[in-house]
Amino acid sequence: MAVEAVIFDFGGVFTTSPVENFAAFERARGLPERFIGEVIKKNHHANAWARFERAEIDLDAFDRLFAEETRAAGFEIRGKTLVGLMSLTFRPEMIAALERVKAAGFRTGCITNNLPDLGAGEMLAASEKREQLEAIHANFDHVIESSKAGVRKPEPRVYEMMCEALAVAPPACAYLDDLGINLKPAREMGMRTIKVPFGDVRPAIRALEEVLGLSLLD
């Protein structure tokens, strides 16, 4: 089936990844590599991080519960400390690629796991970055935010919701994300999945070029 729609993650695709910030935090404190990620992945549908992304708990509850989870794993990190590591910067190559995908007539969507009252605008902060964020969102036909929808990746329902919104079958979609755990359910539904590497989005853009038969890099 020919691809009719391209669905994107946001953080780690159009911006740097929070995972990169987590790694820097871990190195500075002598923590095991991927310590934060392992805590977030444990019991990943029901832990504090998952509940916060679905807006089931507020920041104060997340601060306390994440501290409990990390302390049980060997080193306490407050939830508010983790939220403070969410600062992001843009990746212009992927932003340009989205513009070309949209201009070529493909339907476009964004599925983002985000935090209540801390969407990409707050993480990017500066006014000029907010303007860039609005320009990016203008190229999406539909956006699903976990904190508003009450469902998050990798729950299969969120991918189904996007397909319904775009009126497209999963096999007619390409999906990009920087986390393999989020790619797996999309792939199982029949989507063509592309993993976006940390630090350099160009390999993922080249892979998308092959899927779409479209030039996306200068």
Automatic annotation (TrEMBL):
PANTHER family in UniProt: HAD FAMILY PHOSPHATASE, HYDROLASE, PUTATIVE (AFU_ORTHOLOGUE AFUA_1G12880)-RELATED
Entry keyword annotation includes Acetylation: yes
Protein name: Putative hydrolase of the HAD superfamily
UniProt keyword terms in alphabetical order: Acetylation, Hydrolase
Any one GO molecular function term: hydrolase activity
Coiled coil: none
Gene3D superfamilies tied to this protein: HAD superfamily/HAD-like, Putative phosphatase, domain 2
Organism: Amphiplicatus metriothermophilus
